[in-house]
Amino acid sequence: MKPKTSFIWNYFDEVCATTAKCKLCEKIYSRKGGTTSSLKSHLKSVHATEYEELIKLESSKKCSQRPTTSTTPLQEVKKQITVQEAFIKNQKWCSSNPKSKEIDKYISEMIALQDLPFNFVEGIGFKRLLQFMVPNYQLRGRQFFTDNICGELYERLAKNIKDLLKQFQKMSFTTDIWSEPSSNVSLLSLTAHGINENFKRIKIILKCHTFNERHTGDQIQEKINEMLMEWGITNDQIHCFVRDSGSNMIRAMRLADIPDINCTVHQLQLCVRTKKSNQIE
């Protein structure tokens, strides 16, 4: 007689070729065709605990019968290297990584050169592009680039500008006060104009200072002096200041003892507005 290999016979005794007796409930069941399907069905529906044991035994047998592949030492080393490479490839760089710091620098310069808002770095499109091109790069938030640009980048750029200002024996300046409607603040600007030794005209916006105080001549003079001192500009380097014809601006120049002239464009604008106003009336 052929030996029984199925674990189902742990729970049944063979009566004949077409029937078997359950060891648990001693009922006799038909097994037409000599299969064990009906016996499993009985175990599943009547003896659930034993059926679970049967399934576990069959699963263990299948696992033990799976062919094992032997690998050479060289193949094992190659496999380990591949795993290490995959881990390194997906690992994020730390903030001190030279490549990461270089990317930070270029992003900071891009924001400054193109006058982009700081929240640009938090946009979904920018993040997707960067993760596709440099998956190891750890994305930064707007606060990181605000600190980086207003701190390290500004200091480096300010030093270069101060060196550039030293090339001019004399400089002219334009200044103005205007309100920024989006942020509801007033700004006082200072722009330097000069010609270098190669007779090339250079214009540098030195400052846009938030002006929260009253727009009096005394306050304007104080702020302008602060901006000139910040850039190391002395009175003997000033050729003249171009300003509007507001009485507060005129007084500020007098208090600061700075040579100044009216802005011709501003004068023309006042004339045009006056003419339009008279026509409407």
Feature tags:
single chain, alpha/beta, Nucleotidyltransferase, domain 5, five-stranded mixed beta sheet, 19% strand
Overview of the structural elements:
By secondary structure, this protein is of the alpha/beta class. It has 3 domains: 7-65, no CATH class; 98-160; 168-280, Nucleotidyltransferase, domain 5, CATH 3.30.420. 49% of the residues lie in helices and 19% in strands. The protein has a 5-stranded mixed β-sheet. A 3-stranded antiparallel β-sheet has the order 1-2-3, with no helix packed on it. Helix 7 (217-230) crosses helix 8 (247-256). The model has no long low-confidence stretch (mean pLDDT 82).
Gist?
This protein is an alpha/beta fold and 281 residues long. Helix content is 49%, strand content 19%. One of its GO terms (cellular component) is nucleus.
Main β-sheet description: 5 strands, mixed
β-strand percent reads 15-25%
CATH topology value of the largest domain: Nucleotidyltransferase, domain 5
What's the overall geometry? rod-shaped
Q: Helical residue percent?
A: 40-55%
User: Mean pLDDT across all residues, rounded?
Assistant: 82
How many beta-strand segments?
8
Q: In what order do the strands lie side by side in the largest sheet?
A: 6-5-4-7-8
Can you tell me the CATH class of the largest domain?
Answer: Alpha Beta
What is the number of independent domains? Answer: 3
Secondary-structure arrangement, i.e. CATH architecture of the largest domain: 2-Layer Sandwich
Radius of gyration: 42 Å
Count of helix runs: 9
Task: Give the CA-CA distance, first to last residue.
Answer: 123 Å
H/E topology pattern: EEEHHHHHHEEEHEHEH
Low-confidence stretches: none
From the helix content, strand content and strand pairing, which structural class follows? Answer: alpha/beta
